[in-house]
Amino acid sequence: MKNLSVFYFFYYLGMSMYSPFLSLYFESKGFSGTATGLLLSAWAVSGVVSPLVMGMINDRLRNPLTLLRVCVVVMPVIGLGFYFSGGYAVCLALAILFSWFSSSAMPLTDSAAVQIGSREGFSFSSVRLWGALSYAIGSFITGFIYKETGYPVSFLIFFAMSIPILVSMLRLPAVPRSSGKRPSLIEQAGTAASNRPFLLFVFMGFLLMTSMAVNSSFLPLYFREKGFDLGFVGTAYSVAALIEVPMFGLSARLVGRFGRFPILAFAAGCYALKCFCLFAFDNMALTMALQLLDGVSYALFAGVAVEVVNDLSDEKSKATSQAAFAALTYGLGGIIGNASGGAVLEIWGGSTLYLLLFGMSLCATILLIAVRKWKGFASASPSN
């Protein structure tokens, strides 16, 4: 548990060096809102394909941490290329390559953490909260640093952060390995594709994660449109990440008392409320306060969804299912959201964008309320 927590802490600290500022980074290179949205969509396309491929390969390896180590080593090298690049085509190529490895790293780690936690008797959320804490610290500090230095240095700082990430990765515990004959890649894909409860849960996650992906990418440009101080962009992400820390810690207790799907529905409802308020009001103080709902929603959904996916998955395809869920929610949601979000923001403005996000997250809320008693979800919604 300690070694996993340390890795999550440093990995998310490194992620906070660049992730909240991607749209501003690309904008600083002179790209338009639509061009930035397409760049982020290409990032997301790679993020859909890579977890599926890497997850299936990972389930067939004798050492499930092998691909994670490859990702952690390669990411900072590719990221360094952003610091020296200038043209759109180069940024596009780097975005696809970087996303291939970064989008695979966390599903692989989450799959390992859930399995280790089940073996050792601790919840996934108890280690994931350290990532939320470090992300809050990093995004808060770097938001003010980049206001003075500019956003291009973000990947240079991430490269420096790769050292503690690599060291902590070497101390990760062994992952339980399934016994018996290994399924083929086609069998793995077929198992996931025929799992109807899993696919339905993926759809609900897609609705909510698309909303979250658009918000994550375009909140800085929403700040610019409304005339808010851009120095507080990092603070906005930090506020959300800080509340994630106690919420990750509390999620296991809340699930034990209320059940998984009521907590997931509450998470989606909180996000719907946030999006509606950003549509209805133009106030920086309120926007910063609403980031608390952002953090509550993400922590509860991310912490519980990983465990639901694990319980809905075949024993020999745990990593494949986690990767597929990440690819089809975070990844595909990012593709559709970022491709359309930039255009919506540029043509109709930020208020309209958040009205659309409200509708999507409200649909997710309704489905999560209805689904917990549907056939096939019993294993993923134990009685409280």
Q: What does this protein structure show overall?
A:
- The structure is a single chain.
- The mean pLDDT is about 80.
- With about 375 residues, the protein is mainly alpha-helical.
- The chain has helices at about 1-15, 20-30, 35-60, 65-85, 90-120, 125-150, 155-170, 185-195, 195-225, 235-260, 260-280, 285-310, 320-345, 350-370.
- It is about 80% helix and about 0% strand.
- The chain has one domain (about 1-170, about 185-380): Growth Hormone, Chain: A, CATH 1.20.1250.20.
Layout: helices, strands, pairs:
Blueprint: H1 2-15, H2 22-28, H3 33-60, H4 66-84, H5 88-120, H6 124-149, H7 154-169, H8 185-193, H9 196-226, H10 233-258, H11 260-280, H12 284-312, H13 318-347, H14 350-371
Defining traits:
transport, MFS transporter, 81% helix, Growth Hormone, Chain: A, globular, single chain, 14 helices, mainly alpha, transmembrane helix, 384 residues
